[in-house]
Amino acid sequence: MSWLVVTLAIVVVGPADAQQDGVRIHVEIQASDYTYWVGNVASRPITRFEVAQSNAYLFRAPDGWQVESKDGLFVAWTDDVRHAIRRRGTGKFSLRVTSKGAVLGEVQARLGLKSGESIVIDDLWGIVPEPRSTVLLVSGVMAALMLFHAGFMALLDRRAACSEPTAP
Hints:
This protein has 168 residues and is of the alpha+beta class. The chain has helices at residues 2-12, 132-163; strands spanning 17-20, 23-30, 33-40, 46-52, 56-60, 66-70, 73-77, 90-97, 102-113, 118-129. It is built from two helices and ten strands.
């Protein structure tokens, strides 16, 4: 079943990999854990990582990095260049999603370089708020099913009552 979800996500949302300006990001999703593998292919040292998120917790970054969650962003940074993601290096950033109305969608990542420049990568897999329309649609379908079921059961009861033999 999980292969179907991943296949649908690839078709609807897009790929789990993105590369731009010498930086590659690979996204892995396992249950409620999202992992961003940031690879420095041919760029200056990466000292900052930001990705949009909604309703997440348990933020993790490589050793020597600090993490913070603010204003719908997962932010990680290092002030010590020794811990930066250097050329041909990889850093692992992860978070866990709550069950409080978050779904898979497209998010933006921003990477800060030691030089002060930024690289913005769009269309990554990430956590977005569940659209209100989804909640209303599910509630509406459930209500319609219950009404259909109640009407069908009433019809069966009426037919059963009409077909019962009467005592002489």
